Amino acid sequence: MGHLSTHVLDTMNGCPAAGMAVKLQRVDGDQVETIKAFTLNDDGRNEGGALLDAHAMAVGQYRLVFSVAPYFRAIGVQLPEPPFIGDVTIDFGIADATGRYHVPLLASPWAYSTYRGS
What percent of the chain has pLDDT over 90? Predict the structure, then answer.
């Protein structure tokens, strides 16, 4: 069964990014629709599990927007204004609605990386 999930690790502190705000959006040309806005739990994941379950999965373009600078400021990290990394936006495609798509983010105030996980 297809699903979409995410997980964020704070690589500055070596822990899950608990409390980070995230938005999932559907992108269709110039049209952007926010499907879900949520805050990561203590494990750095969406509290409700999958962002899209098998019934909601659809082929198309999507975007995850991670509020990185606000997260680090909230935990007491002094950042310049403007911060080097504010929001991290990851645009990705779902080509197979029955597939498993996991979009992890490894983030610090100065760097980030992502990949398609399982």
Answer: 98
Cα(29)–Cα(15) distance, integer angstroms: 36
Q: Which residues of 53-87 are buried (b: 16+ CB within 10 A; e: fewer)?
A: eeeebeeeebbbbbbbbebbeeeeeebeeebebee
Please give the order of strands across the beta sheet that includes 112-114. 15-16, 3-10, 100-107, 112-114
For the chain, domains (ranges, CATH) are: 3-114 (2.60.40.180)
Say what the pTM is: 0.96
Question: Where would I find the H helices in the chain?
Answer: 68-74
51-108 pLDDT per residue, tens: 999 999 999 999 999 999 999 999 999 999 999 999 999 999 999 999 999 999 999 9
Assess whether the previous peptide bond of 104 is cis (omega < 30° from 0): no
Q: Are 107 and 88 in contact (CB under 8 A)?
A: yes
Report the alpha-carbon distance of residue 18 to residue 1 in Å, rounded.
27
